């Protein structure tokens, strides 16, 4: 699985890579400069050694014969390796004196004052003014390479330790720097149809304030649009109910006055107007659900809303004496939910249970601290049928009148309330029946 792109990850990788590359480049230049400086130091060392040894060696040779000259230095044994070796040569190039580790053969360097170099040694030659004696001091190139490698490692290993340390430091700095962005992201993520509180700009850096200001302007416009839509929906509901109710009343009066030969047709008109009224009511509720009125900025106790809706439906012919409320003492359910939205949810659940249960049967309403359950009598429904009941204009196996919108409206509102709707058949603890549970 590919990870989602992250600004923090990209910044850490980019900054660490750039810093590491610069460190490596700087280390490379440092090694080159160090190698050049080492060469100068070594050259100066062998030159000074040769110039200081020359008069001492000449004085020593003046008191010896040629036969002792080669033997006496060799008699001094030492366990340490010599980093600098030398040979004292005469005008003819013969070796008159040499250090312990110096080769027995003359250095492949001319008897001229100055530096020379072969594949293995850097050599400096110093001589007397008359050219009778020369001393050649040699420094192994392996020593110089070893010093350069050890110096380079002394620069490289600390960098290996600094890279993970710098990664940790960069992560902490980047996270600290980007924390206002994360806060702004989380704040914007909470905005929806029920939470349109402006984003707080006070604690934001100057770079993020234009973003917060733009979001607040957008929230103001959205708030105005939603308020306008809600107002239009409420007005439309009133305007539609009035003419439909008037037409239904006139039809009912006409039904009482027409001769029996026309009563069937007028009765059909009455039923059509009743269905039209219910359908208009459901469509307006669906419109309100789509407008996002489910949540609120303030908490509301929903139990009184439930009681009002049950009492109102209980006074109708459909629900008279059929609804039984089961609630604990001092029942209370506080949520950030609009009372009118919760009332629509309860009304649709109760009407659905009353319409699709046998006439005269009881509908049980169970109220708890996590939501409500509405249970009614019915035949057992299979899972495919239950899954389709929340789709718009979908009805189960029933002959009762309805539009197929009730449970879809409930589902839409419950989703806005960050809750869940569960349909079950048979009902909990029963052999049959239908149960709709809303968890909030």
From TrEMBL:
Q: Which reaction does it catalyse?
A: ATP + protein L-histidine = ADP + protein N-phospho-L-histidine
E.C. number(s) listed in UniProt:
2.7.13.3
Main localisation = membrane
Enumerate the subcellular locations listed in this protein's record, separating them with semicolons: Membrane
InterPro entries listed in its UniProt record: 2CSK_N, HAMP_dom, HATPase_C_sf, HATPase_dom, His_kinase_dom, HisK_dim/P_dom, HisK_dim/P_sf, Sig_transdc_His_kin-like_C
Q: Which SUPFAM superfamilies match?
A: ATPase domain of HSP90 chaperone/DNA topoisomerase II/histidine kinase, Homodimeric domain of signal transducing histidine kinase
Q: Which domain of life is it from?
A: Bacteria
What are the HAMP domain coordinates in residue numbering? 175-227
Transmembrane spans: 12-34, 153-174
Sorted keywords for this record are:
ATP-binding, Kinase, Membrane, Nucleotide-binding, Phosphoprotein, Transferase, Transmembrane, Transmembrane helix, Two-component regulatory system
Q: Name one GO cellular component term.
A: plasma membrane
Q: How does it sit in the membrane?
A: Multi-pass membrane protein
Domain Histidine kinase stretches: 235-440
Task: Tell me the GO molecular function terms.
Answer: ATP binding; phosphorelay sensor kinase activity
State the protein's name. Answer: histidine kinase
């Amino acid at each position: 699985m590919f990870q989602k792109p992250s600004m923090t990850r990209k910044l850490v990788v980019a900054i660490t890579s750039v810093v590491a590359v610069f460190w490596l480049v700087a280390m490379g230049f440092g090694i080159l400069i160090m190698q050049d400086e080492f060469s100068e130091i070594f050259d100066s060392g062998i030159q000074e050694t040769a110039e200081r040894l020359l008069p001492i060696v000449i004085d020593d040779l003046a008191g010896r014969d040629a036969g002792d000259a080669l033997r006496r230095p060799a008699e001094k044994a030492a366990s340490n390796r010599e980093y600098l070796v030398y040979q004292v040569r005469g005008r003819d190039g013969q070796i008159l004196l040499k250090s312990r580790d110096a080769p027995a053969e003359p250095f492949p360097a001319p008897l001229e004052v100055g530096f020379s170099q072969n594949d293995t040694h850097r050599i400096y030659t110093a001589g007397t003014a008359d050219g009778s004696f020369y001393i050649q001091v040699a420094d192994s190139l392996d020593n110089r390479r070893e010093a350069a490698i050890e110096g380079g490692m002394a620069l490289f290993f600390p960098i290996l330790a600094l890279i993970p340390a710098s990664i940790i430091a960069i992560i902490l700095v980047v996270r600290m720097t980007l924390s206002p962005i994360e806060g702004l992201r989380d704040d914007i993520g909470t905005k929806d149809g029920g939470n349109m509180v402006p984003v707080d700009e006070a604690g934001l850096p100057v770079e993020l304030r234009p973003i917060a200001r733009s979001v607040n302007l957008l929230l103001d416009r959205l708030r105005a649009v939603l308020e306008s839509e809600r107002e239009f929906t409420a007005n439309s509901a009133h305007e539609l109910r009035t003419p439909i109710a008037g037409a239904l009343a006139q039809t009912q009066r006409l039904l009482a006055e027409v001769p029996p030969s026309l009563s069937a047709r007028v009765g059909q008109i009455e039923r059509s107007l009743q269905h039209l009224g219910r359908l208009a009511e459901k469509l307006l509720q669906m419109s309100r659900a789509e407008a996002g009125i489910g949540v609120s900025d303030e908490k509301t106790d929903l139990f009184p809303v439930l009681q009002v809706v049950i009492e109102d439906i209980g006074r109708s012919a459909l629900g008279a004496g059929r609804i039984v409320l089961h609630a604990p003492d001092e029942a209370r359910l506080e949520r950030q939910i609009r009372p009118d939205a919760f009332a629509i949810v309860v009304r649709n659940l109760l009407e659905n249970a009353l319409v699709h249960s046998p006439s005269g049967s009881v509908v049980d309403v169970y109220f708890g601290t996590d939501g409500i359950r509405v249970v009614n009598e019915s035949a057992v429904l299979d899972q495919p049928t239950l899954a389709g009941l929340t789709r718009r204009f979908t009805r189960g196996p029933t002959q009762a009148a309805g539009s197929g919108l009730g449970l879809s409206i409930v589902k839409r509102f419950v989703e806005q309330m960050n809750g869940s709707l569960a349909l079950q058949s048979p009902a909990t603890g029963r052999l049959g029946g239908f149960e709709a549970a809303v968890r909030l």
